[in-house]
Amino acid sequence: MDVPTGYAEWLTELKLRVQGARQRAATAVNRELVSLYWQIGRDILARQAKQGWGAKVIERLAHDLRTAFPEMKGFSRANLMYMRAFAEAWPDEEIVQQAVGHLPWGHNLVLLSKLKTTQLRLVYAQRAIEQGWSRNALNIHIETRLLEREGKAVTNFSTRLPAPRSDLALQALKDPYVFDFLGIGQEAGEREIEVALVEHISRFLLELGAGFAYVGRQVPIEVGGDDFFIDLLFYHLKLHCYVVIELKAGAFKPEHAGQLSFYLTAVDAQLKSDQDASTIGLLLCKTKNRVVAEYALRDSAKPIGIAEYQLVESLPKELQTNLPTIEQIEQELVRYQDKGEDA
Length: 343
Known about the structure:
The protein is an alpha/beta fold and 343 residues long. The chain is 56% helix and 16% strand. Strands 1, 2, 3, 4, 5, 6 and 7 form a 7-stranded mixed sheet that branches. The model is unreliable at 314-324 and 339-343 (pLDDT under 50).
């Protein structure tokens, strides 16, 4: 059968519609499920407060709900305990509807088990929604304290970049950067770190944060007949500019800022297009004296950030595996809840 003119384009459009409808349906189902779990948890809390319900009643409720709804897997005793903790953590139903209700239940398990304060849970939940973090990515960012490190680098952005771009650029950097995925020793040299970062580029991009796109390593730049090589070159999709990253295996020295400033000038002259914003530099060093770094950047004409990096040779055993399963997190919570009931 001959394909009519325009059929392929129409089919592509229909596929996109179907995918969009499926995603919206899945999102709606998830919101309803999380809302249901919150309501069950709220009722358990209320009845425990008024009638003194104990663990045996929860076990009976789990049995009866599983019997009534055998096709649903969320009515284990452990998950009912988690529903109670969920409602206790979020007493305001509006927050559930507008924030954490947009996250899958597994994400909420991670938030409850890994974070102790409401404020931290909320900011991580909002970022997970904004950037579409997987459960594994959420767990990694919590373990490495991503949001607590954001905007902590020493920079001169406030005087070298216009607002609000200066604030956006500052938030794009953090201090320190944690490289717990390289498998190299603490005394690794600059080139060794570069190679390892490129070999683990997906995890490196995850640590850098949203918006970074990898361009190249040891990127050659010719200036006046002399060859120079940029350690790592990225492009930031939100800031619309190149980002030059230089690695220093030792302590920060003022001359490092001068070298990085030279590279920024070269990139602006040779790679930057009229549509691109001014190139930003990030100097990653093993240690830095914050006052020395601030002095080094005070009169620099180029926008530069200075941050430390941490090489982690081996993670604790409990962090060496992938994200724990929901069942493991549930068991951990149940033990915590049982201790509270016994107290």
